[in-house]
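note to self — DONT lose this again. spent like an hour looking for the file last time. sequence + predicted structure for the chain T wanted, 89 res
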Amino acid sequence: MNKINKMYFQDCFVIIFFTTILLALLIYILKIVAGIAPNNISGIFIVGTGIIAFLFVIASATAVISHLKKNKIQLYEEEIYYIALAKKD
């Protein structure tokens, strides 16, 4: 069970790390693109689209983490089994 928890927390860390990088990149790009928008309506549309993308990123990362938490024993026991099987060969 300890190895399962370790693998689960490693996966969660990777998901959160890359989600944070993606969100930082999205904010950076939105800031630049909104700054060069030809008018206010375009800027509002761009920011609105960015907010929707932001929400989708957060929702998908949350869904993956909750799926891992809900099924972690089954998922990681299977992974541990196949890793051990691969080491035998």
